[in-house]
Amino acid sequence: MGALSYRAAKLAALVNVATIFGLATPALAQTSDINAADTAWMIVATALVLMMTIPGLALFYSGMVRKKNVLATMAQSLVTVATISILWVTFGYSLAFIGDGPWLGTLDRWFLAGMTMDGVNPAAKTIPEALFMLYQMTFAIITVALVAGSVADRMRFSAYILFSTGWFAFVYVPLAHWVWGGGFLAAMGVLDFAGGLVVHLSAGIGGLVAAKVMGRRHGYGSENLAPFDLSLAVIGTGLLWVGWFGFNGGSALAANSRAVMAIVATHLAACAGALTWGAIEWVTRRKPSVLGMISGAVAGLGTITPASGFVAPWHGIVIGVVAGVFCYWACTWLKQRLQYDDSLDVFGVHGIGGMTGTLLAGIFAASAIGGTSGLIEGHPQQVLIQLYGIAATLVWSGGVTYALLKLVSVFVPLRVSPQQELEGLDISQHGEALQ
Questions:
Q1: How far apart are CA 200 and CA 266, in angstroms?
Q2: Which of 150, 170, 232, 293 could anchor a disulfide with 63, C-beta 3.0 to 4.6 Å?
Q3: Which residues make Cβ contacts (< 8 Å) with residue 93, sequence separation at least 6?
């Protein structure tokens, strides 16, 4: 009996040690039948969304800055991928998607502790949890990278790294939990299929605040700040467009009909946005610009994002047209009226687009597609719920962005010197330049 008791006590001690160090599966880990088709599709979708940042966003952004800042702009996207990936594994995933607290999750998955090969997250029961974690990581990456477009041509690289780290931790992670991780906005019934609030509006308002705090670029309004190479931006747009199929279609978290419907609505919205923006320029300026058409396409993509898994394909066309009109207005009249220098129109395209698409989701949502009815189907309360989500995102992202910029400025100047800005960030920040 003494030997048996000793062995039992020893086994219990080993189990306790394994649990502490994450070698045993905690109670919150659920197991389910891993579906091969769902897993294969989500692997592809994850790769597509990562492609949206590098090389998609890197090319899109760098093609619209001046030649002396091309490499610096690409470097921001590159360092975002590396930094946010590590932070997501360290604490971001756990705080966003583990636990159902109203404000934040738990640290039970700190450094992915307890994650097993066959375990799943309750939000995606037919794919491995590691894949769900990786897919959500790519969303965090591109959201943080989007903000950089507002302060292109003038932000110090060291300041960007500090700011992006803080913005990820204090803006993105809480919002992801509020909307997708079981937080208070999810409990209220806010609709955001793939990131109208979490990605586009949060990045847009964050970019607007950053642009105001940083001030205008040298020569803004008086010198030619034309893009260096729009062909790069067009290639970047194409990569973003295709990647958005994984962004919106993948948010179904399964290889099913809803994913297909989201992809169809996404493509149609991009087409409608590009045509609408180009048509407006044709009427007002006599010529449809390439910059305008790619801006319209991205506006359509961003605006359909929150609604893509809740609406029919023809709604995607309507939403794309609305996106083209509203985002064009924001990038021209509103920008001139408010006198802010948002270098690559992050607020005008993503902020206004995310806000508009979130509201339209509450209008067009079809119960046959997403299980929730909107205004058109006799549920006007959904519009009010969407407005509440918009307000919460605006206040949180805007306020925290401002506080973070002020905090970072205590440790390192946010902006390069006037001389460094004139010679270009490629040379001053990285010691390299295009020839």
A1: 15
A2: 232
A3: 109, 112, 133, 136, 137
b/e burial code for range 211-248 (CB count within 10 A of at least 16 → b): bbbbeebeeeeeeebebbbbebbbbbbebbbebbbbbb
Specify the residue for token string 């893009």: 227
Average pLDDT of the residues in 167-190: 98
86 CB contacts (<8 Å, ≥6 apart)?
none
CB 89 within 8 A of CB 112: yes
Q: Which helix (H) or strand (E) holds 31?
A: strand 30-31
- HSE on the CB side for 403, CA within 13 Å? 10
Distance, CA of 138 to chain centre: 8
Position 32 scores a pLDDT of 55
Mean pLDDT across the stretch 85-92? 98
Q: In DSSP terms, which residues pair with 30 in a beta bridge?
A: 120
Residues in the chain: 435
**pTM across the whole model:** 0.91
Tell the residue number behind the tokens 């206040």, with chain if given: 395
DSSP-assigned letter for residue 216: P
- Distance (Å, whole) CA 20 – CA 377: 50
DSSP state of 160: H
Collapsing DSSP to helix, strand or coil, 121 comes out as: strand
To which H or E segment does residue 354 belong?
helix 352-364
3 state DSSP class of 307:
coil
Residue 57 main-chain phi, psi, to 5 deg: -65, -35
CA 111 to CA 77: how far, in whole Å?
24
